[in-house]
Amino acid sequence: MDSQSATPTQQTNTISKRQGPADSELPIMISPSYPGQPLLEAFGELRGDIEALVARVGGVLLRGFDVPSVDDFQQFAAAFGHPLLSYEFASTPRLAVSSGIYTSTEYPAHQHIPLHNEQAYTREWPMKIWFHCVTASPEGGETPIADSRAIYRRMPAEIRERFAPGILYVRNYGDFDMPWQKVFNTEDRAEVEAFCLRAGIRCEWKPDGDLRTTQLCQSIETHPVTGEQVWFNQGHLFHVSNLQPEVRESLEELLDPEDMPRNVFFADGSPIDDAIFDEIRGVLADETVMFPWQAGDVLMLDNMLVAHARTPFKGPRKVVVAMAEGHGNLSKD
Fold it and tell me: Which helix (H) or strand (E) holds 327?
């Protein structure tokens, strides 16, 4: 589908090798006015189109622009007017590249990272997220995306109803999950306790010195601007069914459900059956849009309207991330 634009830039979602639902517009691609146009130079003419398209469709792919450095990407993301956010209460390992810029999740290349909205396992999250492909992997390494509104609509009504009160995330930091010192960026227990109090997280220091946190978070959320309902949680990532079968089996021989590195429960604390997450993962798969990266690409998403993932890859790959416009819901208790 071609869109009309008041600027010389071209808008289209005809992206080479794109795969996804026929009715999905994700992502709208914007091309430069001339070959090799610097992205920062184009910002003035692009901004209005980008903001309108991200608000409507959820995601824009800027392809064919010159992005000579990560600093240029940082300046582009910051130019939208919100300070770039730090990565707090982390669930996955990342490396800081520069102020407000991080590597994408540092998981081994052979592992798949399922679809998720950034920090939807908390009550505070970024509204905007940018990805910049510095080096495209020669094989795999895509960043699949999906419309969270379409996921909500496709989700079986009985699952939406059961999840509506929210879900309970339980994390045990230490040997099997990230150390709490890395998650909270401190060695000071008092700082951890203060963060948890502010964020509505229940924390408990265990006899071995490790930490357990419990937090009731949203499963379904209303977008603050569009008013649309979105599927917005990471239950399928935190539930024990996300573990490799042999890992899960060995951990369950050692640990009670509440002592697993990560687990998720219904709002009332009752367990969630694996079959429910099988259905949820099926819906996510049906709404997935995928396309290969090209070096220099910049993808901008509304983090509530669009979820993202990562496929396994071989060879070199470098994708960096920026986040901005913090938003939250601290009224679950």
Answer: strand 318-328
Cis peptide before 68 (omega within 30 of 0): no
pLDDT tens for each residue of 195-223: 999 989 999 999 888 899 999 999 999 99
pLDDT tens per residue, range 131-164: 999 999 999 999 999 999 999 999 999 999 999 9
Region for 207 from its dihedrals, namely left if φ exceeds 0, alpha if ψ lies in -120 to 50, beta otherwise: alpha
Q: How is residue 104 annotated by DSSP?
A: S
Q: Work out the burial of residue 145: count CB atoms within 10 Å of its CB; fewer than 13 is exposed, 13-18 middle, 19 or more buried.
A: buried
pLDDT for res 5: 37
> Residue 31 in contact with residue 22, Cβ under 8 Å?
no
- The DSSP output letter for 271 is B
CA 116, CA 145: separation in Å to the nearest integer? Answer: 9
CB 232 within 8 A of CB 148: yes
Task: Report the distance separating Cα 237 and Cα 244, nearest Å.
Answer: 12
- Measured at the alpha carbon of residue 305, what is the angle toward residues 6 and 81, in degrees to the nearest 5? 60
**Would you identify the CATH topology of the domain 151-283?**
Double-stranded beta-helix (3.60.130)
Give me the amino acid identity at 52. Answer: A
pLDDT in tens, 33-79: 999 999 999 999 999 999 999 999 999 999 999 999 999 999 999 99
The pTM score is 0.90
Spatial CA neighbour of 233 closest among 286, 179, 169, 183? 169
Please check whether residue 101 is in contact with residue 307, taking contact to mean a CB–CB distance below 8 angstroms. no
CATH topology match: 10-111+124-137+289-328 vs 151-283: yes
In the chain, domain spans: 10-111+124-137+289-328, 151-283
Domain boundaries 10-111+124-137+289-328, CATH class? alpha beta
